[in-house]
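Two proteins were folded this term; both appear here.
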Amino acid sequence: MRASLRCQQGITLTGVMVAGLLIALVAIAGMRILPDVIEYYSILKDVKAVVNDPGSRGATVTEIMKSFDKRAQIDEITSIKGKDLDISKEGGEIVIAFAYTKKIPLVAKVSLVIDFEGSTAGSAK
C-alpha cells in the first residue's frame, strides 16, 4: 500500500483553490476591460467610416466632427467626442487621429489605466 501512495500524482485541494482564484481574477479583469476595448474598436471604425464617406471630401473640420458625433451617438460611444478628434490633411486625404485615457476600476481601490490611441493614417480603404 505504501508503494501505491508514493506513485500517486495530482493536484492538491490548495492547488485547485489557487488555480480557481487566478482564473476568477483574470475573468473579472477581462469582463471589466472588454467593454472599453470594444468601444475603442467602435471609435476606430467610425473615424474610418467618416474618412471614407464621399460627403467628407470637401467637408469642413466642424462638419467632420458633427459626422463623427452622429455615428458615435448611434454606436453609444461616450469616451470621446468630435471635438476631441485631431483632424488634418495629408497628401490631399483627410486623416483623423484620437487619443484618450480610460481608468477602469477593478477591485476596491485598485484600477487599471489604459491609454487608447488610433489614427486613419495609412489605413486601407
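Next, the second protein.
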Amino acid sequence: MKKILVIVCALALGASSANAQSGLLNSLKGVFGGSSSSSSSAVESAATGVLGSLIGSVLNQTTTVNLTGNWTYNGSATAISTDNTLTSLAASAYKENLENKADGYLAKVGIKPGIATLSFAEDGTFTIAAGGKSIASGTYTYADKVVKMKFGKVYNYLSMTGDVAATTSGCQILFPADKFLKFATKAIKVVGAASQDATLSSLTGLVDQVTGLKLGFDLKR
C-alpha cells in the first residue's frame, strides 16, 4: 500500500492525467504481483479499481464546481479539521452521529434528502425549498470555491460563508458549524415547526466537542 501511495503522489504531481493513468496502471500491476496472461485481467481490474479510488480523489480536490442551477439535497455533510486529535475510527463514528442528528433536525423544516432543493440563480439570488415551498432565500456571491450566502429579513440577514467541494455525484457546501446551526434553528421558527430543544442541545454538545468543525449540505444534480 505504501508503494501505491508513493506512485499516486508522484504521478499526480508530475504527469498529465492521461499519461499518469497509463503509467500508474502499469505500476500497480507490478505492485499487485501479476504479469502472466492467466492473471492479467484480474490484476488490471484490481489496479484500475485502486486507480479510480485514489487518483480520482486527488483530482477532485482541484475541481471547481459550477454552482449555478438547481441542486437536490442529499443529506447533511461534515468536515473535521486534521488539527483535531480524534482517531480515524472515532472521527468516523462522530461524523455519522452528527450527520444523523443534523438530518433529523433539518427534516423538521422539510429539508429532507431527495425532497429539498437549493437553487442558485445567475442573478445572484438563491432559494432553499421543499415540496415547492420556499424555506429560505437571499443573495449570494461565489468565487475561488467559496460561497457567501446572505439571507433575507426574515432570517435577520444571517450570513454564512461556505467552502464548496466537488464530489462524485455533485458537491458539498460546508459552513462553520455554529453558523449552520443558527440557520437551522431559525428555519424551524420561520416555518413554525415544533421546537426541538433536546435535539438542538444534543447537536450543540456534539459541535462543541471538535474545534474547527464544518457542517452543511451534500448536494447532487
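Residues 84 and 210 are 7 Å apart (CA to CA). Confidence is low (pLDDT under 50) at residues 1-60. These notes refer to the second protein only.
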